[in-house]
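To the wet lab folks,

You asked to see what we're planning to order before we commit. Fair enough. Below is the target structure as tokens, and below that is the sequence we designed to fit it. If anything looks off to you, flag it before the synthesis order goes out.
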């Protein structure tokens, strides 16, 4: 068995630091509309930048249009448009954001949305999950990629298992494919927020078969950001892909 490498220690340390709880009662970094401090009149205004469209993927978590996605997709946008798999495009309302842990909660008007339930407990290590998303450009539509959770691999390498706030995965998604991480039994356990390509040396040191790695928020951040919301029951999606929505903002 290969020994743990410094790069593993660095990645684990960064992951643990990123999900450490803040001093406030609510999760650190969570912002709800209206809670931002007012801008002082003497603050300089920022030069206006040309608008550009950003794209990502989210998934519905109840029948009433609650939608989870990564925060960096909607951060700084003035208008967020969603395109559910079975509906016409419409503007979404941003309910809450957690910039520190890269999670956002949106509301789309409507009813009887197909959705995916959140898992009750974090997934076991060495589990294969599927991320369903729409890559930037969207020409080929939905794609499903399998990623391998490395939670127990951390223990194999002499480290503690990864906490539920942050998931580490072997394999990579692509830009725009940040839809929910779905287990084989159809439950959502996280999102994909970033990915990287390892050097051959780092791949060898970590004992990984693939050269790409993904990181994303797990159940902890997702549950924190929907705290206080009433989830409206209905009929879960017959297949997780039907609960996915394209998100575009400017």
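Sequence we intend to order:
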């Amino acid at each position: 068995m290969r020994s743990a490498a410094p790069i593993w220690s660095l990645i684990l340390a960064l992951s643990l630091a990123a999900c450490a709880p803040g001093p406030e009662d609510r999760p650190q970094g969570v912002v709800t509309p209206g809670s931002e401090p007012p801008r002082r009149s003497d603050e300089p205004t920022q030069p206006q930048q040309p608008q550009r469209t950003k794209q990502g993927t989210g998934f519905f978590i109840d029948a009433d249009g609650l939608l989870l996605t990564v925060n960096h997709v909607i951060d700084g946008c003035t208008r967020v448009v969603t395109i559910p798999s079975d509906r016409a495009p419409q503007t979404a309302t941003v309910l809450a954001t957690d910039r520190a842990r890269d999670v956002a909660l949106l509301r789309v008007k409507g009813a009887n949305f197909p959705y995916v339930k959140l898992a009750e407990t974090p997934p076991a290590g060495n589990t294969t999950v599927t991320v369903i998303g729409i890559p930037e450009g969207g020409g080929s539509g939905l794609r499903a990629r399998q990623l391998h959770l490395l939670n127990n691999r951390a223990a194999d390498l002499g480290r503690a298992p990864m906490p539920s706030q942050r998931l580490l995965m072997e394999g990579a998604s692509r830009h725009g494919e940040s839809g929910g991480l779905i287990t084989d039994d159809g439950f959502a356990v996280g999102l994909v927020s970033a990915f990287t390509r390892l050097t051959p040396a780092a791949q060898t040191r970590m004992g990984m078969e693939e050269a790409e790695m993904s990181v994303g928020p797990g159940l902890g951040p997702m549950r924190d950001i929907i705290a206080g919301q009433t989830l409206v029951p209905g009929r879960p999606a017959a297949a997780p892909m039907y609960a996915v929505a394209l998100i575009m903002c400017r």
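Structural context that might help your review: Residues 6-18 form the longest helix (13 residues). Residues 1-45 have pLDDT under 50 and may be disordered.

Thanks,
Computational group
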